[in-house]
Specification:
- Helices cover about 45% and strands about 20% of the residues.
- The strands form two sheets. Strands 8-9-7-10-11-13-12 form a seven-stranded mixed sheet, with helices on both faces. Strands 3-4-5-2-1-6 form a six-stranded mixed sheet.
- The chain starts with 7 loop residues before the first strand and ends in a 7-residue tail after the last helix.
- The chain has about 450 residues and is α/β, with parallel strands linked by helices.
- The chain has 16 helices and 13 strands.
- Helix 4 packs antiparallel against helix 5 and helix 6 (about 150-175) packs antiparallel against helix 8 (about 185-215).
- The protein folds into three domains: about 10-120, Probable tRNA modification gtpase trme, domain 1 (Gyrase A, domain 2), CATH 3.30.1360.120; about 140-215 and about 385-430, Four Helix Bundle (Hemerythrin (Met), subunit A) (Up-down Bundle), CATH 1.20.120; about 215-370, P-loop containing nucleotide triphosphate hydrolases (Rossmann fold, 3-Layer(aba) Sandwich), CATH 3.40.50.300.
- The structure holds guanosine-5'-diphosphate (GDP) and zinc ion.
- Zinc ion binds near residues 229, 230, 251 and 270.
- Zinc ion binds near residues 229, 230 and 251.
């Protein structure tokens, strides 16, 4: 397919003036286009200094021309890269020239899509390119690079192989019905099923961590009005974005702030006070606050020494899917020391948003949560799409286990494993619909 593909072209560097700009061309006519521009056949993987001219022979710019013949190119097709001064006008003229010579402007993500279709990258790796480009922290960039290198895909493929082995093993037994029941009772089968389940749950938790590394940690700050939520957000963000006021119940809406803690991205959300209220606007704010809490990676429940026992009762039932940290604020008032302790109800940190005492304890707690307990060395990036697919795999695996153990139904179990296999294949793109591919690649930028 690669030989006959339409030739596409796009400016690969970011829009705007820059020292250098790169135009990329891929497809069947790329080599002919390069030959015309250079006036002779380019040597593969050599930097040719070239005078780029328009159809009338007028100079567009001088720059470098590089030719990557198929299949050893990013897309797996003939690729040409043209480097000029990074002037948007120059790059536009050159793009126009290349299109006169037979190329057409590329759609968003089309280069990566071709790389995927030509087997240069799997889907998770292609997504990692987009995530690398969009990364907002050093940790996110390193994690995306590991996924691009195939760290995540390798884990998925290993699990897929084990899953297929297991299915084949069960299907072989189904073909001999007289032995089936005996076979299904064998401990060997149970062991293999358990091994695959364990492997999956490890991968699922690492994938969740990969999403946190890529998207950042979602931290929701909740508590009674005047507990000091906005002050805490401001202290962490070290800038006055939230409006701090001594009047109770004024932070009715949600307020978001992205901050970086030693290379880790955190999205902080300040919520309206969680308390009973008859005010309609405030009730809406509280509804949204509870919603935020449900999807939080970390909930910071802010209180102070004076209201601690009372607030624990109020905050106790507030739902959170993630980790809860109890923040005992305003220690400057009680004159106590900052500290971190583990209590029956969870981790508690005593600090002062006003003086900043104890903030370092909170920062290091958040950092270790972002890293999933230990340092994020070796961690790969992932997307929510991957987590959802793995959760479906887990559900099919659980159903397969139930079919085997409770029902001795080998046929049903094999069917569940087939579903699991298909859902797992969606991660790397082995089994994926055109709709899914379209949705993924259209979110890329043009020129990628
Ligand atoms: P929120 O309603 O929970 O967002 O609370 P605010 O951040 O708006 O703070 C309410 C009041 O408590 C303000 O007057 C703050 O200055 C004060 N406050 C917040 N944190 C501290 C603290 O650590 N120490 C003292 N003394 N006052 C604080
Ligand atoms: Zn507030």
């Amino acid at each position: 397919m690669s030989k006959n593909a339409e030739t596409i072209a796009a400016i690969a560097t970011a829009p705007g003036a820059a020292g250098i700009g790169v135009l990329r061309v891929s497809g069947a006519d790329a080599t002919a286009i390069a030959t015309t521009l250079l006036g002779r056949t380019p040597q593969p993987r050599h930097a040719h200094y070239c005078a780029f001219r328009d159809a009338a022979g007028d100079l567009i710019d001088r720059g470098l021309l590089l030719h990557f013949p198929l299949p050893n190119s990013f897309t797996g097709e003939d690729v040409v890269e043209l480097q000029t001064h990074g002037a948007p006008v120059v790059l536009d003229l050159l793009l126009r020239r290349v299109c006169e010579l037979g190329a057409r402007p590329a759609r968003a993500g089309e280069f990566s899509e071709r790389a995927f279709l030509n087997g240069k990258l799997d889907l998770a790796q292609a997504e990692a390119i987009a995530d690398l480009i969009a990364s907002q922290s050093e940790t996110a960039a390193r994690a995306a690079l590991r996924s691009l290198d195939g760290a995540f895909s390798a884990r998925v493929r290993k699990l897929l192989r084990n899953l297929i082995d297991l299915r084949v093993y069960i299907e072989a037994a189904i073909d001999f019905p007289e032995d089936e029941i005996d076979f299904l009772a064998e401990p060997e089968l149970r062991n293999r099923l358990d091994a695959v389940s364990d492997e999956l749950s490890t991968l699922l938790s690492e994938t969740r961590r990969g999403v946190r590394l890529a998207d950042g940690l979602h931290v929701v700050i909740a508590g009674r009005p005047n507990a000091g939520k906005s002050s805490l957000l401001n202290a962490l963000a070290a800038q006055d974005r939230a409006i701090v006021t001594p009047v109770a119940g004024t932070t009715r809406d949600l307020l978001r702030e992205n901050i970086q803690l030693d290379g880790v991205l955190l999205t902080l959300v300040d919520t309206a006070g969680l308390r009973d209220s008859t005010d309609v606007v405030e009730r809406e704010g509280m509804r949204r606050a509870r919603q935020e809490l449900e999807r939080a990676d970390v909930a910071l429940l802010v209180t102070d020494a004076e209201h601690l026992s009372e607030d624990l009762k109020l905050l106790g039932p507030a739902q959170s899917g993630g980790t809860r940290l109890l923040i005992c604020n305003k220690i400057d008032l009680s004159g106590t020391e900052p500290q971190r302790r583990e209590e029956a109800s969870g981790i508690r940190i005593d600090l002062s948003a006003r003086t900043g005492a104890g903030l370092d304890l909170l920062r290091s707690e958040l950092k270790s949560l972002a890293h999933g307990g230990d340092a994020a060395t070796g961690a790969f990036s992932a997307r929510t799409r991957h987590v959802l697919a793995l959760e479906r795999v887990a559900a099919h695996l659980a159903a397969a286990e139930f079919a085997l153990v409770a029902q001795q139904a080998g046929e049903l179990a094999a069917e569940e494993l087939r579903h699991a296999q298909r859902d797992l294949g969606e991660l790397t793109g082995e089994f994926s619909s055109d709709d899914l591919l379209g949705a993924i690649f259209s979110n890329f930028c043009i020129g990628k």
